Amino acid sequence: MSRLDQLPADQKAVLQLLLKQGRSYDDIAGLLQLERRAVRERALGALHALGAGAGADLPPDRQDQVADHLLGQQDPDQHAATRRFLAGSAPGRRWASAVAAELAPIAPAGLPDLPAEHAEAAGAEAGEEPAGSRRLPGDPASRSGGPAPRSSRLGGAVLVLALLLAAGIGAFLLLRSDDPSAASDEPATSQAAPAAPQDGVEAQVTLAATRAGGNAAGAAAVVVSRGTRGLAVAGQDLRPGDYAVWLYTSRTETRLLGFAPRVTGNGVLSVVARSIPEDYARFRELVISRERVTEANRDAERTQPGTIVLRGEIGEPPAAP
């Protein structure tokens, strides 16, 4: 298994969005309604893991600088400064080369080329700081006096949305945008149609664990693409087994949306529904239930959730403009 395959799901998701879809930190932060810093931390954490063993002689802040460069997240001045640094730093080129080799399979458009070596002594003769000790203007480490903190795993329910982005929202939007049948083929009429919902994330639900859910956490998002609503749900730290997704107000007012793929030993749940009832917001909650599925009851109609392990209030969708 490659190092890329061993990354936490949230880190791998961010890399795929950056390199496969050409998104920026700001794009992803806006889509997930996260801070830009949270997105960048996951990207940098991923590249640190991919370059482990090759960066012993490269300070963490320099690794961050080169990581931003490889991911195409620098402005022209920063890009030029990083190339100058790499040209004069053998440790920098060694780390960048190792990381680039790991990223290549998910970078269809390619990665920035590495500059040729030049004499590292030139800067020292001019009285400059050693290449490995300088920081870029605007780099978080230079502003704070130390490397920016980063997390190697999902740190809470809201951050499960990073996994949801790749396993849910991203898949839904890509399927919709690439599916010719997604475009309406109904003939035009003279009647004014209701305003279509705007593309993007219409509603988010933070899913908190019940007592039966233990340490589980999750999140969901109602996503709109080309006027059609879908639902993406993700969870972590769930017991292996079968789980269902429900709209829920009370034991007598429920609606089954469907089953998630069976959760395995990694404890991760991810599911995408390419449609969701337009009246979803009339239900109070979105809940995830653990279900006992056997050959005898696999096709049985279910009207009530089993053991609820995650739940969150849906809230009102935004009003149409």
From TrEMBL:
Annotated InterPro entries: RNA_pol_sigma_r3/r4-like, WH-like_DNA-bd_sf
Source organism superkingdom: Bacteria
UniProt keyword Transmembrane helix, yes or no: yes
Compositionally biased tracts (Low complexity): 140-151
Chain segments annotated as transmembrane: 154-175
Region listing for Disordered, in residue ranges: 119-151, 180-200
Keywords attached to this entry: Membrane, Transmembrane, Transmembrane helix
Protein name as annotated: RNA polymerase sigma factor 70 region 4 type 2 domain-containing protein
Annotated organism of origin: uncultured Solirubrobacteraceae bacterium
